[in-house]
Amino acid sequence: MPSPAVLPSGVSQDALLAELRRLSWGAADILRAYARGEQPPHGFPRALSVDDGGEGPVSAADLAVNQWLLDGLSAAFPKADWTLLSEETAKEQLTEGQPLPAEWLWILDPLDGTKDFLQGTGEYAVHLALVRGKRPVIGVVLLPEADELWIGIIGEGAWCEDRQGQRSPVRFSPRTEVSDLILVASRSHRDDRLEKLIAALELGGSKAVGSVGCKVATILRGETDLYVSLSGRSAPKDWDMAAPEAVLLAAGGRFTHADQAELTYNTGDVRQAGCLIASHGKAHAELGERATRAMADIDPGFQV
Length: 304
Prior knowledge:
This protein is an alpha+beta fold.
């Protein structure tokens, strides 16, 4: 494992984790209120219904949690030498082809899984990742409806906490043979190429789950063993992958391209394109080899 996380000068790990807990559970309360049509806490306005011509609950929840997280981190660590980037601020902050000039970068997704949020499945998440030198250092994946806060610190490990701070460990499944592995897949974002790839992997079964954070949590709980992302007309972005990768990696799992290349962040291109595989790590290389061979037939020339 890599060496324990080194944080920016003046930021202690204990203080950072305490603030991440406070912000995460506050975000959970905000999102749950909007999901139920209730008055959100912390002074945020109720969402007008789409029928009223106002902000719908998804947009209002997204913006409220975005403000909650950005304001909270800024207030708690006003002198910290890091930059804050979220899905909601990316258009204003980013220039295509140019990485942000930041050694330390927070990459936030205030609401991952908007379809699931709107449809009421409960399978939505909040992602926070601290990245240094294009690679994650700390990841937080909050599942508001499950009351699960997954925290991963590269070099130290990963765990799940409830609202009372009670920790439970990562429990990867004991499955090691590819033919026994269980895939966690999207309900949407599935095209013919992905269906062919899944068939070619010859796995043991599959389960449909919402946001990337929720998918990776099923691997961490041992319910499933791998997740595959195959970009097509669109691709997931840095804020979709950074926090789930950090937690999975800290737990001892893997999250790479099919050719085993690492994911990189703040490169000037926020798209995480290609064939990406997240797993508990026990058959990761073989999965990558199978996927690479399959994609050569399914979509010749595709960069895995």
